[in-house]
Design a protein that fits this description.
mainly beta, two-stranded antiparallel ribbon, 6 strands
């Protein structure tokens, strides 16, 4: 499945993010992306079928996360 992730706003104290998928219960880090990549957009053509949510979690300086539905 092809997915484009793009952030409109990210905190000033963020720099790197981990992507987790609901297709494995968010248990395994799928990919790490930078703040710059999320701002410009990350195109991933290998998201496993059956994935309905991508969790984006800050890995540096804070531990906030957001769940993004895949449509």
């Amino acid at each position: 499945m092809k997915v484009l992730l793009k952030a409109l706003r990210l905190g000033t104290n963020t720099s790197e993010f981990g992507l987790y998928l609901d297709s494995d219960g968010f248990s395994t880090l799928y990919k790490t992306v930078t703040k710059e990549e999320l701002i410009t957009g990350v195109l991933d053509e290998a998201i496993p079928d059956g994935t309905t949510i991508i969790r984006v979690t800050s890995t540096v300086d804070c531990t906030n996360s957001v769940d993004i539905p895949v449509t």
